[in-house]
Structures are given as C-alpha cells and as structure tokens.
Amino acid sequence: MKDYKELDVWQRTIKLVKNFYEIVEQFPKKETYALSDQVRRSSVSIPSNIAEGFTRNSTKEFIHFLYIALGSASELETQLIIAKEVGYMDTIDNLIDDLAVIKKMINSLISSLRRRL
Hints:
mainly alpha; de novo design (two linked rop proteins)
C-alpha cells in the first residue's frame, strides 16, 4: 500500500468526521467552544493520526500513532456519552457502534503491524 488514503479504516474515519461535524451543528450555541469543539477535535484526530503514522519512517512509529488514534476514538466515545447525558443527543447507539468498528479496525491494524516487527 502506497498511501494512507487507501486504508479502509482511514476512509471510514473521514466519513465519521463529516457525520460528527453535522451532529455538533445541532448542539446549543453555548457549546461552540466547549463540547462541540472537543467532539470536532477528537474526531479529526483519528484519521489525522492514522495518516501521520502511515507516513512516518518506521512500523514502530506507525503503531504509536495508531494508539493515539485509538485514544482519540475512546475520547470521542466519552464525549458522545456526555452529550447524551446532558440532553444534546437522544440516541448515540449507532455512533457508539460505528466507533466500536473503527476501534476494532485500528486494533487489527496494530496487530498486523506488530507481527512485522
């Protein structure tokens, strides 16, 4: 594979980011620089770290950035739970399911890369 944009997990996370940008538009305006901003940042962090790690010089560095992407996915999941708890979202089950799939994909990629070390 020559380009991170060919990775299924990267493509899926780009769609996720777009989805979250649309979702936070529905949050109250008072959240523009609080929870909305955090959701945007953590969602963008996932594909960004996959891309950055892919272009690094070593498999070990790629794995490191994949772990950061995994952390961002967990951070985003927590923010979704908070958004639901404070009444900004009615249901988050589908989004949590999407994140679970992405986390599995990242973990699978990490396992695959570790076998190469």
